[in-house]
Amino acid sequence: MPPANRALEGKAAVITGAGSGIGRASALRFAQQGARLVLTDVHDAEADAVVRAIAQAGGTACFVHADVSRRADNERMIDVCVERYGRLDILFCNAGITLPKLLSHSSDEDIDRLLAVNVKGPLYAARHAIAIMLGQPDGGVLLFTASKTGLVAQTDSPVYCASKGAVVMLAKALALDYAARGIRVNALCPGIIDTPMLRQFADAMPDPGAAWAAYRAAQPLGRLGTPEECAAAALWLVSPEASFVTGVALPVDGGFTAM
């Protein structure tokens, strides 16, 4: 028997970028709390492994390959959720990419790809999800993974900072537009989190050990965050326990944006 009083019991949710990092941790956490999931990623093997892990734990999930830069993929993943589970309660737009380059070194292709994934993806997905949620008596919840760089700038990543600032303002604007119509919208703003993407980035540095030491030293709490800590915050934001919370950009950053 499943445990009583699970926070997302019976909810139907879509999570993008669910194959690793914050998306994976959130998928496992949401499933544990009773959500029925559609997981998407461009890395099929990783996302399939998450689906299997959820099934082995007694949860419900399926995988849909989706490149969130494509409007049709965003719409299809949401349609699969409605077809499979009969509704859409939660859309967690978590997929994203980074671009650690000065603007003068960023090609047209770099800029177009990053904005397509980080900004157009959430726009496409939210537009389709909102139309469905407005037809449900109890609305729904949208959550976007932004970043601490959507709140404070960092060096050498201007296009990435611009994209995450756009995501924060998208969450706030949609929250106001739909507050009276049963749809809550928030942004999760992780700091420096120990994810596979960060490890790949650090390993490509001339001195990976020094890079990790610098990451830790930059945090007031003296360590990196974990995907599971971000997943716990995400779970709260999409759960009924946060029913009076909308238009928030929540930092999960070890105190970084307090400096």
Distance between the termini: 46 Å
The protein's oligomeric status is: single chain
Q: Residue-averaged pLDDT, rounded?
A: 95
- Order of helix and strand elements from N to C terminus: EHEHEHEHEHEHHHE
* Main β-sheet, spatial strand arrangement: 3-2-1-4-5-6-7
Task: Tag the structure with descriptive keywords.
259 residues; Rossmann fold; 2 domains; seven-stranded parallel sheet; 7 strands
List the helices and strands and how they pair.
Blueprint: E1 12-15, H1 21-32, E2 36-41, H2 44-56, E3 60-65, H3 71-85, E4 90-93, H4 108-133, E5 140-145, H5 158-178, E6 183-190, H6 196-203, H7 208-217, H8 227-238, E7 249-252
Parallel strand pairs: 1-2, 1-4, 2-3, 4-5, 5-6, 6-7
What does this molecule look like?
By secondary structure, this protein is an alpha/beta fold. The chain folds into two domains: 12-190 and 226-252, NAD(P)-binding Rossmann-like Domain (Rossmann fold, 3-Layer(aba) Sandwich); 194-224, no CATH class. Helix content is 45%, strand content 15%. It has a seven-stranded parallel sheet with strand order 3-2-1-4-5-6-7, with helices on both faces. 45% of the residues are buried. The model has no long low-confidence stretch (mean pLDDT 95).
Quick overview:
With 259 residues, this protein is α/β, with parallel strands linked by helices.
